[in-house]
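Task: sequence design from structure.
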């Protein structure tokens, strides 16, 4: 298996019918970074900044954050890294953050909502990212954006920090790309306003499943009740592929869905060309796509957008099995 993977690492991530695919990795700790080179992945599609926050005993200051983000960029050795701003609240808590006792934490004070209400926190985090990326490429992604106005406010904070950096004579990033997580369905109905404002978008399928189907992602009773391989989700993805494609916005998906080869196959069939997954899934997914006839799959998928039962997954499984 190891030898097989070593070969696979150096083979191009291209479908059998010739479409190149970008496979990126999800990361959160520095120990995740060596996987980038061991796998030959295209970059880090989701760097969860809350992970280093979660394993600490106190809130990290700017210098500590700067050190972390610099190391991440150093370790990436020029491959792109998407830094997601702090996504705490909901299922992710910080030991030194107040217990809020919310009745519905998943629908509560979390992610960018906290950042906008506590702008000093967001400013410090963005400052650390901008400083770490001085003279290098920086990609910043905001989590749980539900309204375009939230993105505008976050962007303003970013611009303030950029100006501050320039005033103090720090080197600016060589380039700056701004994106959002697509994980709150309200954003699907604001695409015309949203897309001209962003460079990239990454679908958070874990939260999108939760909010699209009103189904708690952490509740075992809800496990397997709804399926991402369903007409509703496939249509969401198809809409995003079309709209992002037309607007020139890079679309990716970084939820756990991308780490399951059958689900990843469906994502490519719907039209995604970039996915971000966990390192252990890398070679299985790469191997899958190298055997995939994308044109045949899109034709097959066209017949599944109106399935009224749970047959999308078994039908895709049959499709994959029949083709080895
Ligand atoms: C997601 O929601 O799919 C996602 C990638 O973000 P997280 O799992 O960190 O909420
Ligand atoms: Mg999420």
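Answer:
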């Amino acid at each position: 298996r190891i030898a097989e993977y070593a070969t696979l690492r150096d083979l191009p991530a291209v479908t059998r019918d010739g479409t190149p695919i970008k496979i990126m990795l999800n990361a959160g700790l520095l120990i995740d970074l060596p996987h980038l080179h061991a796998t030959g992945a295209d970059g880090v599609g989701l760097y969860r900044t809350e992970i280093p926050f979660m394993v600490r005993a106190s809130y990290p200051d700017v210098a500590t954050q700067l050190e972390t983000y610099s190391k991440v960029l150093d370790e990436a050795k020029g491959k792109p890294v998407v830094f997601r701003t702090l996504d705490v609240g909901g299922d992710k808590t910080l030991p030194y953050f107040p217990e809020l006792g919310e009745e519905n934490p998943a629908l509560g004070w979390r992610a960018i909502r906290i950042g906008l209400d506590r702008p000093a926190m967001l400013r410090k985090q963005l400052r650390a990212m901008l400083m770490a990326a001085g003279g290098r490429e920086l990609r910043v992604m905001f989590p749980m954006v539900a309204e375009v106005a939230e993105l505008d406010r976050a962007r303003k904070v970013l611009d303030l920090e950029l100006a501050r950096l320039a005033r103090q004579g720090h080197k600016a990033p060589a380039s700056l790309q701004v994106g959002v997580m697509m994980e709150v369905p309200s954003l699907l109905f604001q695409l015309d306003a949203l897309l001209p404002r962003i460079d990239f978008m990454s679908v958070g399928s874990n939260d999108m499943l939760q909010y699209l189907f009103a189904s708690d992602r952490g509740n075992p009773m809800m496990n397997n009740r709804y399926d991402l391989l369903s007409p509703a989700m496939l249509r969401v993805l198809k809409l995003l592929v079309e709209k992002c494609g037309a607007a020139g916005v890079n679309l990716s998906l970084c939820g756990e869905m991308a780490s399951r080869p059958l689900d990843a196959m469906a994502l490519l069939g719907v039209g995604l060309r970039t996915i971000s997954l966990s390192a252990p899934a890398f070679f299985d997914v790469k191997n899958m796509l190298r055997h995939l006839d994308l044109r045949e799959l899109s034709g097959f998928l066209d017949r599944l957008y109106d399935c009224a039962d749970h047959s999308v997954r078994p039908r895709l499984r049959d499709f994959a099995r029949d083709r080895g």
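Residues 117 and 299 are 46 Å apart (CA to CA).
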